[in-house]
Design brief:
This protein is an all-beta fold. The protein has a single domain, classed as Lipocalin, CATH 2.40.128. Helix content is about 5%, strand content about 50%. It has one helix and eight strands. Strands 1-2-3-4-5-6-7-8 form an eight-stranded antiparallel barrel. A hairpin with a 5-residue loop joins strand 6 and strand 7. It is elongated.
Length: about 150
Amino acid sequence: MNLVAQPQIPPQLPKQEIAKPQANVRLIELNNVIVGKWKGARLSYITNGTVTVDSLWFDFKKDGTLNFKHQKYELNGPTVGTYTVTKNSIKIVADKFPFTHTLQGIWSINDGVINGNFREVRERDASQPTYYTPGTETGTFNLTKQ
């Protein structure tokens, strides 16, 4: 008797019983992260080559508003402002006489830090302390959520 090995055919499962792999994608957007308290610093580049550093504090609200304070000049309390988010980019505008602050930054999903550029315009205001100077400052900033 001659026995010949027959190939083994695995049983076929009905298609509805085959588990399809599911994507495990977690979408994180700055809109979902931004609400809350953030702090950081900004570097101001003055025309004579001087660099100054001061601290920043933000409290972002769900409705697109914020409270903003910074160390330099802000003797008249926190400033209320607004922010807009587009993907991982944020634009912040805080305007309280005599200051107008505009910050434009990018949020890094890798380290959770917002880095960007700022512009501060200071109007003439005799009620400010003697070290206050009107003018415009520009520079860079970073923020980390607390």
